[in-house]
């Protein structure tokens, strides 16, 4: 069964951590899944987030999965997150998209919804 994990909660939310936990469990079981970051969930892709040394870093935890990490480009830009291409296109001085994350359009979400057997939103 393929699962789409739709992350819409901010990185400070416990729900964002539950999304990561599900992804880790599915990966451990070698079950098919995809993930998509949307709405406030795109903030996990912000490379400029500071996390105290005594706390886990959600961005690094997602990167450690070594999976594709698509992020809604519109939601990201609206929250000040951009990659080099969009920074240049929109005349923004610097980019801050974390490594392994990728800005994509909503068409990718539509494709993921259509091709998944279940969708779980956090």
TrEMBL record:
The protein's name: Sulfurtransferase complex subunit TusD
Main localisation: cytoplasm
Origin species: Acinetobacter pecorum
Residues making up the signal peptide according to the UniProt record: none
NCBIfam families in UniProt: PRK00207.1, sulf_tusD_dsrE
Keyword entries, A-Z: Cytoplasm, Transferase
UniProt similarity note: Belongs to the DsrE/TusD family.
Pfam families xref list: DsrE
InterPro entries cross-referenced by the UniProt entry: DsrEFH-like, Sulphur_relay_DsrE/F-like, Sulphur_relay_TusD/DsrE
The keyword Nucleotide-binding is annotated on this UniProt entry: no
């Amino acid at each position: 069964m393929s699962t789409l994990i739709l992350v819409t909660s901010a990185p400070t939310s416990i729900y964002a951590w539950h999304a990561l936990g599900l992804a880790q469990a599915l990966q451990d079981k070698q079950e098919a899944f995809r993930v998509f970051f949307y709405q406030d969930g795109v903030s996990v892709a912000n490379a400029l987030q500071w996390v105290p040394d005594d706390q886990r870093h959600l961005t690094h935890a997602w990167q450690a999965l070594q999976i594709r990490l698509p992020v809604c480009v519109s939601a990201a830009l609206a929250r000040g997150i951009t990659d080099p291409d969009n920074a240049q296109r929109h005349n923004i001085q610097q980019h801050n998209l974390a490594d392994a994350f990728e800005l994509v359009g909503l068409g990718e979400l539509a494709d993921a919804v259509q091709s998944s057997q279940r969708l779980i939103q956090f």
